[in-house]
Amino acid sequence: MRAKSRRRSRRSGDRHRWPVDAFWSLAVYDAEDYLVPNEAEIYSVGHHVPVVLNPDGSLDLTLQQHDPGPGVPRGNWLPIPESDPFSASLALFAPKPVVLQRRWRPPPLITLR
Known about the structure:
- The chain is mainly β.
- It has one helix and seven strands, in the order ββββββαβ.
- The strands form two sheets. It has a four-stranded mixed beta sheet, with no helix packed on it.
- Residues about 1-5 and about 10-15 have low confidence and may be disordered.
């Protein structure tokens, strides 16, 4: 039996440059606005476990229910619910003026199949 999973990726463009003076964090919440429970006990990416950049300096994050395996670094995976609605929330700590002036937008989530 094969479990369903949704795989999503967030890419920061040509270079991994988040407009912050401190750190950033991406978390996933369920339909009731609680952190998504998961066996891996991973509740956010971007701060506690370092993300691994691609050779060109860009960043791919995988949002899916099951562990994506060794092809995705541990710090680049964020579990999501199998079928329930969820929301992703990006927190920028000590954001730079470009964020405060609304001249920067995070890259979109792209569904991969």
